């Protein structure tokens, strides 16, 4: 049996892997067609949202099944300011972040102050997302259930100030968001907050006995996660140019957000990225295969998600990345 790689060697290999991946992603638009580029944008979007959710669940152990709430509120806030008042999304995003952070903190306060945790906390997040969906279904200012639409510009337009441009522009924007989230989460893991969160995740009562203010640190995790997720909503609104409450606030949207980290590896940095890539590529491939065969199978993507999740839970309970990291000589993969 070969000796395990030293921490320094593992770190160098991890850095090399990161640099190689970044170089490939930077060059990707020049190497692929528009269809593959659209799939890559979707992967980056889910990698980012998965990283944001991972802060709350993977780092701190607080299960949220209602993260579509922050995507939807962030999207509607910035889109409405842009359409009604011509306010640049780079300005409107600050209001979206504030609103979503406050919503997250309200949910966290109600749960943590009154001892609501585990499954009941997850149900509370679902309830808030569903209440908001019903509210936006009757909110005429943003189109209610009929949808809210942004003006679609020509793909030849490049207006970064107003986020109007080609898929290539959105690709690099999504890549920048993912890279920033990766670096930020890596810093969080090594910070005092990261160590406190991991203590709370493993044993909250023991963390309290050590003098950790679990309420304050859990609230911080919720606030950061909701703020990060709101940025994904801004991207969603200006990339797709249409918003429907039933679509963006639906629990299925939250499930799509959390599947990447679960499949890739909860609490890891590479897990949300790897999980998003695996799920998006395979699910899109299954959908295309079914269409090519001339079949119509409602919900085929959801069935595929369920099968993949079942297989990972059975054979890779910690996710794909920790196992892959060990095989690549990158240690346990828990923080890489």
Describe this structure in words.
The chain is mainly alpha-helical and 336 residues long. It has a domain at 33-249. Helix content is 73%, strand content 1%. It is built from 14 helices and two strands; from the N terminus they run H-H-H-H-H-E-H-H-H-H-E-H-H-H-H-H. The chain has helices spanning 7-31, 34-59, 68-85, 89-113, 118-137, 167-190, 192-202, 204-209, 214-240, 245-248, 251-264, 271-292, 300-315, 320-327; strands spanning 148-149, 242-243. A two-stranded antiparallel ribbon has the order 1-2. Helix 3 packs antiparallel against helix 4 (89-113). The longest helix has 27 residues, at 214-240.
List keywords for this structure.
14 helices; single chain; 336 residues; two-stranded antiparallel sheet; 1% strand; mainly alpha
Layout of helices and strands:
Blueprint: H1 7-31, H2 34-59, H3 68-85, H4 89-113, H5 118-137, E1 148-149, H6 167-190, H7 192-202, H8 204-209, H9 214-240, E2 242-243, H10 245-248, H11 251-264, H12 271-292, H13 300-315, H14 320-327
Antiparallel strand pairs: 1-2
Brief rundown of the structure:
The chain is mainly α and 336 residues long. 73% of the residues lie in helices and 1% in strands.
Low-pLDDT windows of residues: 1-10
Q: Which strand order do you get reading across the main beta sheet?
A: 1-2
Structural class: mainly alpha
End-to-end C-alpha gap: 24 Å
Helix amount: over 70%
């Amino acid at each position: 049996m070969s000796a395990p790689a030293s921490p320094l060697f593992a770190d160098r290999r991890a850095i090399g892997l990161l640099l190689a991946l970044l170089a490939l992603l930077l060059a990707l638009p020049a190497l692929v067609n528009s269809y593959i580029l659209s799939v890559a944008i979707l992967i980056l979007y889910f990698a980012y949202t998965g990283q944001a959710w991972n802060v709350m669940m993977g780092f701190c152990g607080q299960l949220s099944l209602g993260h579509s709430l922050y995507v939807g509120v962030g999207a509607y806030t910035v889109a409405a300011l842009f359409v009604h008042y011509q306010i640049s999304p780079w300005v409107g995003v600050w209001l979206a972040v504030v609103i979503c952070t406050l919503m997250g903190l309200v949910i966290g306060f109600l749960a943590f102050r009154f001892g609501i945790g585990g499954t009941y906390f997850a149900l509370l997040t679902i309830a808030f997302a569903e209440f908001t969906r019903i509210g936006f279904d009757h909110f005429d200012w943003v189109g209610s259930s009929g949808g809210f639409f942004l003006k679609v510009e020509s793909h030849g337009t490049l207006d970064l100030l107003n986020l109007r441009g080609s898929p290539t522009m959105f690709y690099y924007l999504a890549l920048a968001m993912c890279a920033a989230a990766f670096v930020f989460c890596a810093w969080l893991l090594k910070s005092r907050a990261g160590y406190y969160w991991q203590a709370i995740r493993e044993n909250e009562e023991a963390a309290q006995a050590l003098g950790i203010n679990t309420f304050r640190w859990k609230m911080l995790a919720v606030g950061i996660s909701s703020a990060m997720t709101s940025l994904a909503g801004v991207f969603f609104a200006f990339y797709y140019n249409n918003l429907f409450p039933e679509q963006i606030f639906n629990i299925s949207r939250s499930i799509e957000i959390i599947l990447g980290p679960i499949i890739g590896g909860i609490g890891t940095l590479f897990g949300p990225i790897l999980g998003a890539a695996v799920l998006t590529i395979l699910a899109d491939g299954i959908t295309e295969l079914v269409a090519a065969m001339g079949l119509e199978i409602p919900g085929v993507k959801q069935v595929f998600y369920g099968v993949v999740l079942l297989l990972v839970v059975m054979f890779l309970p910690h996710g794909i990345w920790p196992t892959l990291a060990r095989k690549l000589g990158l240690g346990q993969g828990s923080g890489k």
